Amino acid sequence: MGGQQTIDRILASGGSAASLALNETVVRAKLERDLLEMELQDLYAQACTVRLDEDAARLNREIRELREAVRHFLAEWSAHVAWEQSELFPCAAWCLAEEPSLFASMKEDYRRAERFVRDFLHAMEQAPLPVSREQAKKLAAGLLQAYACLKNRLREEEEIVMSLEDRVNVFRE
């Protein structure tokens, strides 16, 4: 359901139904954010392992596993961002009376992180096998930069969701 549809449903439904509709958005946002944060933490741990590993055979296995984990995470993250843009952000802009420009920095964090992730994936496709320790460290460093951007992005999202949750509680009172 799109953001405008959620807003229309809130407007048309009155207090308890409005609270329910807004609560559905909050619950989904929190659930997806928590899952993405766990996956992101796993990617961080894998990238750190790659940066520190000295054994060439193990390093190449780990970096291939990291590549697959990054691909999976990027697909999950992209789906979440699409939902945010169609549902969460419009709902938050309406419910919190915030300007859509509030979300501009979040979008920029995502674009910056996505660039680091796509650079990693592209470099992995181009890298000769086996990957050298120096190349693996360089590849993992870009993912650590993406991690920093996405952690900030998730923190900003958490603040928005907490504000929406406060609004849900107002509807319930």
From TrEMBL:
InterPro entries in UniProt: Hemerythrin-like (IPR012312)
Keyword Coiled coil (UniProt): yes
Coiled coil regions, renumbered to chain: 26-76, 140-167
Keywords for this protein: Coiled coil
Pfam families: Hemerythrin
Entry keyword Coiled coil: yes
UniProt name for this protein: Hemerythrin domain-containing protein
Native organism: Cohnella nanjingensis
